[in-house]
């Protein structure tokens, strides 16, 4: 049985492919019977795979990880652990084959002007942005804008955008909840470390334990103090619908929209650099 090295807390632990598949199954809250039915294999065979008594075929690894909605990056790792070559490419963002994707993203970002929009990767590092994002970045000190720029760190760092967010307790709880949900999906230790860092930042306001709407609210707003004005935004996140490349699967576009007429007027009249 081939195993893979996983580093946890500075100690390298060897996890065979069967153990990893069991961990993903339990993370998705499937019983062996439920997963075996979805994968059209016997419960006994799945049990043998998880305990190391049987080595899964390449197709079985792909079928099981598809039903468990395992991220493409982790599917490649599981294939390697089982002794097979990865099947999903991981292209550099500036690779020639991604030129149509970069052009499409640029069109989306430019088309969203004069409203801010960004593209970020799995680690929440900024990949692309439109010029309207300067409304936010002008409020952030240079030391937080040194590449790679982490979107969550710039938002919640006490020296960053957090100083200008009127509802920082509410917005911080919202962002940390999003990050926790991503950790549950990906089991990424890097995101866990990022959450630990962000959760350790001081916050001058209490954070709600559960996101509840305020009077008349239908979305969690970003309330931003810019000069003597309060701007209000909501955002929409989009991802690629059918990615077959690790890089594409981990990209997301977040587009910000004005949540009231005053913010819309300011964005429309504001010169875009």
UniProtKB/TrEMBL annotation:
<dbReference type="InterPro" id="IPR041413">
    <property type="entry name" value="MLTR_LBD"/>
</dbReference>
<dbReference type="GO" id="GO:0003677">
    <property type="term" value="F:DNA binding"/>
</dbReference>
<dbReference type="Pfam" id="PF13560">
    <property type="entry name" value="HTH_31"/>
</dbReference>
<dbReference type="InterPro" id="IPR010982">
    <property type="entry name" value="Lambda_DNA-bd_dom_sf"/>
</dbReference>
<protein>
    <submittedName>
        <fullName>Transcriptional regulator</fullName>
    </submittedName>
</protein>
<feature type="domain" description="HTH cro/C1-type">
    <location>
        <begin position="21"/>
        <end position="75"/>
    </location>
</feature>
<dbReference type="InterPro" id="IPR001387">
    <property type="entry name" value="Cro/C1-type_HTH"/>
</dbReference>
<dbReference type="Pfam" id="PF17765">
    <property type="entry name" value="MLTR_LBD"/>
</dbReference>
